Amino acid sequence: MRNIRTRKGIATIAVVAMSGLGLAACADDSGDGGTNEAGGTAPGAGQEECAQLEQFGDLTGREVSVYTSIIAPEDAVHKESYKVFEECTGATVAYEGSSEFEAQLVVRVQGGNAPDVAYIPQPGLLQTLVRDTGSVVEGPNPVSDNVDEFWGEDWKAYGTVDDTFYAAPLGANVKSFVWYSPKMFEKNGWEIPETWDDMIALSDEIADSGTKPWCAGIESGDATGWPTTDWLEDAVLRDAGPEVYDQWVNHEIPFDDPAIVESLDRVGGILKNPDYVNGGIGDVKSIATTSFQEGGMPILDDKCAMHRQASFYAAQWPEGTDVSENGDVFAFYLPTTSDEFGNPVLGGGEFVAAFSDEPEVQAFQTYLSSDIWANEKAKAGTGWVSANKGLDIANLRSPVDQLSAEILQDPDAVFRFDASDQMPGAVGAGSFWTGMTDWITGADTESTLSKIEGTWPS
């Protein structure tokens, strides 16, 4: 994600530069999702896995810059999954992960230094970039066709702004998980809770034994606070249900509605309870300064019993950790607070937005939206799943990933996308994060939510 991509002025510079280099490119600035190609025969022509990429021609020597919030160790399997693309097209991928992604992406786009492609984890941020910068390029036809074939309508809608399709889904994750140690549970005779009340009773039992039942960390650079937003979102889905959740996301009810206050107080019963946290790390306030990557690690030393975090956390455990039902760590579904709303599932994902319509960029977008890439990514490593219907669950190597994929592909699941990721960027990637951080470090529930409400764009 390196090239300057404000479409009108830069397109002229690109054409002049390419003609000076003697490169044949077929530009399409119509904005109608047309496909560009570079001419020549693709290096992978005739190979089954390259069939959809042949249309873009020979891309040898070209580079696609990718900017993302996905950093080590999760970045390694992403880079591995690009090999088929590079072999099929001749292009290379320059990957850059950053913990400052959400803040720096906007700065780079506004400063004329946008990447070729960005993996955007917030539909709300995508909407902001489309509406405020005009720099996001419409999704080309092959990408749109892939999304229609391999993804549900809801997923395509998350990548659509003002009835125009821009960004295909990439990965997905199930956030409604609690990580624990099966060995530790078995040794102490602890049972996996089936209801929220059971989970609180278990927490009390563990605390009485001298072990802190919970550990957590929410530090994440400019994105510090996001794990706490996930806690609240899961609670709202369970306490108030999907209809109220949607109203909250769309600001049809205020951010500090009594239903939201009730749910945050429920979360506070765990995260702000000194008897419960922060096992193996410190006191309640230590949650704010502990990185989300390190938040669950005390489980491995029997210093805490539970850590609420998404399916992708599987990739954070040290190499050699047995992540399985009878292993060192595994996860269980975050229990419901009542039977009224079924089994809600909070999830998230990324969307592939482009700031260039060069053929190598369109080819990369096409590859990432295909079943070919989904299965290559699955085989490359653990800690990742997708809602791509072309993904063969058997290719997922982790029991947690397989469980997550089954949940995502279950038509009866009450699934909702992460709320903060759908809200306007100023809230979802701003005041909500900082507000939850302030809440952890001492602010009360009502003033925290009222302060966030005051930041909602008019």
TrEMBL record:
InterPro entries assigned: Bact_solute-bd_prot1, SBP
Keyword Signal among UniProt keywords: yes
Record keywords, A-Z: Signal, Transport
Signal sequence segment: 1-24
PANTHER family: ARABINOSE-BINDING PROTEIN-RELATED (PTHR43649), OSMOPROTECTIVE COMPOUNDS-BINDING PROTEIN GGTB (PTHR43649:SF29)
Name recorded for this polypeptide: ABC transporter substrate-binding protein
Family that this chain belongs to: Belongs to the bacterial solute-binding protein 1 family.
